[in-house]
Design goal:
By secondary structure, the chain is α+β, with helices and mostly antiparallel strands. It is built from six helices and eight strands; from the N terminus they run αβαββααββαββαβ. It starts with a helix and ends in an 8-residue tail after the last strand.
């Protein structure tokens, strides 16, 4: 009976970990805007905050990029990928995470956006989690209302022609809809410039292309 009890306890303890490490289609992509002249202190504070995730044994991976080209130059993009709906309900120690954010991050930056996305493998080349390359092209597309199916069909028709990692996500919540995001991770700027990728000519209300730089010290992996 003692052995059965021990096995039951171990299985119960393991279940939350399995739920959080199972891969799924959902991603969170969010933005921080450092205060003017406070970039160095912001980065130091964010790195301290990542130490909280390490000490808390967070099972999520968090990417971190700085926007290098775009109207939001120097904004920080942080994101986590490959989640199930169930795992999104179990972030690491939410109250403690918030307290650590207030102590280390918010004195130096403002939270300016947070959205939930679903990965679209039929439109993409690659998995739902981007490669950790030095550069990433981030394209944000807003399409006209009611044209989502036509837009996705146009992308699907070109999927077989994709030459490199190209990841499409559909926004579920967090901003004006319908909205899509495309990530194109590449080893350098030349690879992005030499491999231009077009969008469907019609059905797009607005498109924004930005280039991001990966900050390895601002990335957390369990």
């Amino acid at each position: 009976m003692k052995r059965r009890l021990i096995v039951s306890i171990l299985l119960a303890l393991a279940m939350p970990l399995v739920a959080q490490t199972t891969k799924g289609p959902y991603a969170r992509i969010a933005f921080l805007r450092p205060h003017d002249g406070d970039t160095v202190d912001f980065e130091a504070g964010y790195i301290r905050h990542l130490e909280f995730h390490r000490q808390a044994k967070d099972t999520w991976t968090w990417f971190g990029w700085i926007i290098w080209a775009g109207d939001r130059q120097r904004w920080f993009v942080y994101a986590t990928f490959g989640h199930t709906a169930e795992s999104l309900d179990h972030p690491v120690q939410p109250a403690e995470d918030e307290r650590d954010n207030i102590a280390n991050v918010t004195p130096h930056a403002q939270f300016v956006g947070n959205a939930l996305y679903e990965f679209l493998p039929a439109l993409s080349q690659g998995t739902g989690e981007p490669s950790s390359t030095p550069r990433v092209e981030l394209t944000t597309v807003e399409v006209t209302a009611g044209s989502e199916k036509a837009f996705e069909a146009a992308l699907a028709s070109e999927q077989s022609k994709l030459q490199g990692e190209t990841l499409w996500y559909r926004m579920i919540a967090g901003g004006s809809a319908p909205r899509y995001v495309r990530l194109r991770p590449r080893p350098n700027l030349a690879a992005l410039l030499n491999e231009r990728s077009t969008l469907p000519d019609q059905r797009i209300a607005k498109a924004t292309i930005e280039i991001l730089i990966l900050r390895p010290t601002m990335v957390y992996r369990p």
